[in-house]
Request: fold
Amino acid sequence: MKLLQEDESLNPILSAVNLVDVFLVIIAALLISIAQNPLNPFSADDVTVIKNAGKKNMEVIIKKGKKLTKYKSDGKIGEGEGVKAGVAYKMKDGNMIYVPEDKNTGNRKTGDKK
Reply:
């Protein structure tokens, strides 16, 4: 009957059980933080995240369904390949008018008034 009268503070198994409880709480907190993350791989939402907006090391992360795409800035502004597609005019009332250009000549399309 000596085992039943043993002091609980001297039993090393009880401290191991307490450590397991602490780790369970930590794991639960980590799972909750993963579930609330906007880039959660288990959610079906489409999300766009912009890191360091307007800075040289800007990064755009786009999540559509389960596909994750990252775009990193190289620090250069206004660089890229392309051609002029037309001209946009802002009217006095705030409306914007876009006039497309002909692909071959670079002039306004036929029928447009100058």
The chain has a mean pLDDT of 78. Strands lie at 47-51, 59-64, 67-72, 86-90, 96-100.
